[in-house]
Fold:
Amino acid sequence: MSFVITTPLYYVNDKPHLGSIYTTLICDSIARFKRLSGDHVIFITGVDEHGLKIQRTANDKKVEPQSYCDGISNIFLQNWKNWDITYNKYIRTSSQIHESIVNEFYNRVKKSNDIYMGVQKGWYCVGCEEFKENPDNSSSRKCPIHQKNLEWKNEENLFFRLSKYQSQIEDLIKQPGFIEPIERRNEIISFVSKGLKDFSISRTNVSWGISVPDTQSHTFYVWFDALLGYVSALSLDMKNPSLKDSNTNGWPVDIHLIGKDILRFHAVYWPAMLMSAEMMLPKKVFGHGFLTREGQKMGKSLGNVLDPNLLLSKYGRDAVRWYLLKDISLGSDGDFQNKRFVDIINNDLANTIGNLLNRTSSMSRKWFNNRVPNNEMLNDDNTLEIFSNKAVENYINYFNLFEIDSAANVILNLAINTNLYLNEKQPWILIKNEKNINLVSNIIYNVLESTRIIGLLLLPILPELSKKIDFQLGSLYNDKISWKKQLDWGKLKHKSLLPVPSPIIEKLEYD
Ligand code: MSP
Structure:
């Protein structure tokens, strides 16, 4: 099966911050899970380079927009490398391929009689690149997200006939699973029920954009341009990209994963544009919550961002991944707190999972000649086998529903139960009596086997830690064999050598 997933195409007004890394890490984890499950995955990311916000940023820095964008785009690419993001397509909206897709799309929409010239008046947030419906009437009209003054605009623009698609959009957004989570779906249903208004898709005062083919003094509105990046990303390897090839290239996407701030664009404007161009619609739009710091959205414009590179160099990829993926439920907001971060990494990864592996491997080496015990003798204690099989089943179900935090908690619970099992069985006491050797051998085998499954389940979430666990168990993972098959209980080889244990994760100190 093929599976196509996208991150938003990030604005290049600044380098990536933890918010953009958050969305990308979630997509990366889902993409890894789907690949391991045997799907052919196309994971799309990229940058959104046009528009007033970028034009102004480049002007302020006194550089040409294109060379400014080149610089930031390279920083994004470097970041995705540093974070080991397994994307397959990286699209830049300033690319030639993208421009030709936008032009072709515009011609289709025009042919559907969905474009007309009109006058756009209203309050605009340059940070959101969006007109605000009803800004409060106070003298300081500010964008609630960016806390910056809105700007009054009154100009001739081309409009897209969004209103024509009212009933089709109503039907679409009511389809179960199209918008998730449910609260976001309800917000959009309520927004659409108020009546869709046509929106302007061109600008006359923005030179940094794609020129509208037949209206040369206009450039495309940045959102009309950027959303098409998802389609042009699929044509990246083609000499003559064309919309008619998009279906064979992977369109429509299975899931657009975005922050809740840009849900309307993805769940309403974008599907209507696609309907107008007679293209297939994305299967799902998932609007996740914000990362906050002291309750405020973390954002470039607000200046309260955490430097992801600092976190990366201080704690490493997997610690940050665990915190963001396990501690924040996808869809809810999550506050980044330093103390909680340290506590979670130490408790979950170092104590619960790391110590379990370390002490069991040490016991096994000590009592069974540096090896996994031979438990070919009757092992009728299936407590952990039952736990593990249930955990695998739950984990896969949660991941398929994009409930990554629940999937991560399943792993943690398996580790907690395995620790409990070990503590109850007390093999260190049993071993004192030689006649218990088969019993001890079974107990240790069961715990090591459960740890192997824990390591495998961690692969999409914490790829590095997973590999370290595998190494400590004698490098059993084989990427030529189906990952799901390797999750079957009992695959740990009897009598295989165990390397000298070393901690898989260092404990963190408070600042
Ligand atoms: N360029 C548009 C998207 C166009 S998609 C065709 C854009 N870019 S952005 O750089 O502002 O990125 C927005 C996305 O970054 C959010 O939707 C979200 O995925 C992510 N985040 C930005 N700040 C965030 C937080 N504070 N918390 C979580 N995610 C955040 O909008």
Q: What stands out?
A: Residues 338-367 form the longest helix (30 residues). The radius of gyration is 26 Å.
